[in-house]
Structure formats: C-alpha cells, structure tokens
Amino acid sequence: MRAVNFGVIPNISRTFSKDVSLDMFRRMCLAKYFDLGLVEAVKGDLTRYLVYLSLGQEATAAAISKAVPEYMLFTQHRCHATYLAFGGDPAKLRDELLGLSTGTSGGRAGSNCIQCHGGKITMFGHHGLIGENVPLGVGAAFGSRKPTICFFGDGAAEEDYVFVAMGFAVTHKLPVLFVCEDNDLSILTPTKVRRSWSMTKVANALGMPAMDIADDPWTIFKKIQKLKCNLPAFINIYACRANWHVGVGTDGPPEWDRFKMVKNELKKLGLEKQIIQIEKKIQDEMEKLWDKKRLQKLLKK
Ligand SMILES: [Mg+2]
Asked: Which CATH architecture has domain 23-300?
C-alpha cells in the first residue's frame, strides 16, 4: 500500500494559487536548510542535545501549517519542520539545540521537546515517552475546546494510550486532528515486522474519518481542509526520513525525495525562477544562522 503517489490527487497542484504553492515550498526550504545547517553544527560538536531531523519529511508540516495555521500543536521528536513551518523563530530553536538560555525551552530540553507558548504559535513538545503528546493534546482540547493537532509517528501509533486518547476524542467530539507521520520505521524496524494492522482502520473503527496518503503537500492541504470540518479525524501520511532516527547519519537513499518532486512540480507550473529565488534566500539565511564562528561566539557568552 505504501507508495510515493498513494492517494495523491492527479494534477492537484494546478488548482492552487501560485502564492500558496510557493509559500508551502518556502516552508519546506526553511525546514530543510535549518536541518542541513544543524547537521554541520552536530559534526562540529557544537550542539548540546541529540537531534531528530525532519529532513525528508518537510512536506507534511509545510502543508498542514498552511491549511490550519491557528491550531494548538502537540508534537514529539522529529518536529523541527513543524515548529518552523508554523512560524517558530529559527534562532530560538538553534539556541535551544546549543543549550542556550535564549532557546525555546531555555536551553534545557532539546530537539524533541520544543515549547513555544505565546507569540505566533502554541506548541508543546514531548518529554521522552513515545506518544504521550497524544493524550496530553486530547486533554488540552477537552479543557479548552481549541482546535488541536497531535503529531506522532508510526511507532507511537502502537502505544495503547494513543488509542485510548483517540477514543476519548471521538466520545467527546473534540476538535483534534491526529497526524501520523508514517516513515515505515520504528527506530530501525519496518512496520510489517511490528504489526499486521492499520492505524487508519483502527481510527475508522473508533468512529472518526481516517485516511492514508503519501506526502504530496497539495493533496495534504486539500484533505486537511475537508477533515477539519469533521473533527476528530486521523490522517496517516507516508513520508521518508532522510537521516537516522536520532543523529545525522543516513541508512542509505530514502524511498523517495519529496523535496525534489515538489521542485519539479513547481517547475512544471512555470515557477522555476521564483523557486530558485526562494531557495537561495532561505539557504543564505540558514547559512548565517548556523555560521560556525557565530556559534562559537554565542557559546562563549
Ligand atoms: Mg516512524
């Protein structure tokens, strides 16, 4: 069932305005070049924490942040793209990873526990127990009735408290969007070795709309716009991590490269000039953000 174009609506990019398409691409660039700068900082032994990179999985956050920018966010590891796409300050995230007091959690939490309360976004990270952000997000939605997204991975989907929280959300008709970023791996173990069932079918059986799709940003945007009218809902998005579960190494080439595919699609739409400009601008900004001399200066303070 997992495939690069699974569930993708043919020619959907043509139905979007250029502005929306380019802004989703800009958000993908931000996540990509932030993490590429971080990779060099890790190699230079300048960071304080283990890192969980969003590289390869940028499209999901870019599309969802564009479709539902106002939602409360409950994330787990591999959430740099989510923080950045929803409007988080890249310098604060960098500082967090350097262990500086100017970081998102005062430099005390690291990559998987990005906290951002007030300002552009409301985001709660997790503390180490995989999937714990799901019941926490459901509880927050129950108390506040604010629209909420719980992001988790295909490994976390196997935790019993995730099911229980999803069932509770159905019972109380809570405005929660459950997003599974499905890279088909729990650390190093593929889904087919771990389970024979589908999380989408479980969510459906609990009584919420649920679907599987690949990480085409235009399709994700369209599907989320429909699902948000019928919450709680579940969306399982097939994506490919480019780097290890934790750290900056790679296991080899990923199954597909969505960033490259999105660029090609934008070129077909006649936007080549614009995407070159956007990519160059973000690349330059992130190079400055992660400049080695600048980091060394910050760390000496
Ligand atoms: Mg996974």
From this structure: 3-Layer(aba) Sandwich (3.40)
